[in-house]
Amino acid sequence: MWDTVYAAASPPRDAGLLRKSGAGAPYRSMRKLLVGAIVAFGLGSGILAAALVGSSGATDPTGTGSATVVETTEPMGRDWTEYAEANGVEAALAQLVADGLAKPTFAGACHTVAHKIGRVAASQVDLRAGLELEPGSCLNGYTHGLLQELAIRPDTKFSELLGACAKAKAGEMATECVHGVGHLLALRHPSSLKSSLEECLTIEASLHASCVGGAMMEYGQNILAKKWPDAYSEINRTMGPDTPTEINLPQNEAEYPCLLVPEVSLMYQCWTEMGPFIIAQSESLEDAAGMADKCRIGEESLQWGCLYSLFGWIMDDLDGGGDNPTELAETVTSVCGEVAAELRDGCLNGVLYRIGLPRDIEVAEAVCGLLEKGWGAGCRAGVETARTSHRNSGIVD
């Protein structure tokens, strides 16, 4: 599935929950990794992108010997925008897949590169034909790039984008494609989340959640990056411009976005993107207990989704202690130890998911083993959430 994420005074970087835990390690920002809406949650897409660099030699996927090679230090070894422009989108996608076969952990870099090829495709092929070229790997980065380029054109009709997504590859990629349009609707309506959600609800009901999730993610991440620029400056944004879009939502929309229309108020996907909205309203990034209370929603599944999102994002701002289970366990204890007991399982699910996302599952399991025995249910749920994320991202444990 998918990804992505994103002015008051910022909190000092040497303060916060980690210091209270006694871990004492200097701040090293936890890797800002957003994986695409894995487990239908719609979190960020550039896994391991910064760490992966492709081979410098290029091969010719067409077998004609005519491919133009542009060597750079970009992910996967070449300037992919120029490569796609010179050789064509289909050849560029074939080359990208060929390069990736030798790199089983290249999913994040592949997604980033495929975005660039997709943007070139907007000028080479029409929308419906372009969507059919999605290679089935790279976490749908190609489709995201294609939609992103089309969405910035003032004459583009979003109803046409949504309709094309619903039919792409006989509907097999509809959810991921529609999720991307949700992101772009937020950029089209920066002052009215209600307008975006209402457009999302014009397509068939089975796709509502995917569109709403994308819109919520884009709004929330931009608001978060604006409110706490130091803490969240490294958010890997994949759908909007390089800097946060100026989002000016009315107070009621920023505070209670999932209550704007009746259908959305019951939608689990919406609540699993609430974390950035809650953090952006907070006066302190240390107020884990106060932020958790914002997730006290009547229906248990909505509350669980809200806590998952909130504590995944809180954890994203903390020094994760490298891969040391003991230091990580101290951080988890400092965070979830502050929240009310009835909310603790949801907190553990969020922080263990975020710990396991960029690391081996064994690390998350080791952390779980060091925590208090009474915290077992939430801890196990977090490990399983991380395991599902690995599986959906093509990471082999």
Describe it:
- By secondary structure, this protein is mainly alpha-helical.
- It is built from 20 helices and no strands.
- The two termini are 19 Å apart.
- 56% of the residues are buried.
Can you lay out the helices and strands and say which pair or pack?
Layout: H1 17-21, H2 80-87, H3 89-101, H4 107-124, H5 127-131, H6 141-151, H7 158-167, H8 174-188, H9 193-200, H10 208-227, H11 251-255, H12 262-265, H13 268-271, H14 275-281, H15 288-293, H16 300-316, H17 325-336, H18 344-356, H19 361-370, H20 376-392
Indicate the radius of gyration in whole angstroms: 21 Å
Report the uncertain regions.
1-73
Percent of residues in helices comes to: 40-55%
How far from one another are the termini? 19 Å
Which sheet architecture does the biggest sheet show? none
- The average pLDDT value, as a whole number, equals 78
How many domains make up the 3D coordinates?
Answer: 1
Helix-strand pattern? HHHHHHHHHHHHHHHHHHHH
Shape: globular
- How many helix segments? 20
Strand content: under 5%
How many β-strand runs?
Answer: 0
**Computed structural class:** mainly alpha
Task: Label this structure with key terms.
mainly alpha, 397 residues
The gist of it:
This protein is mostly helical and 397 residues long.
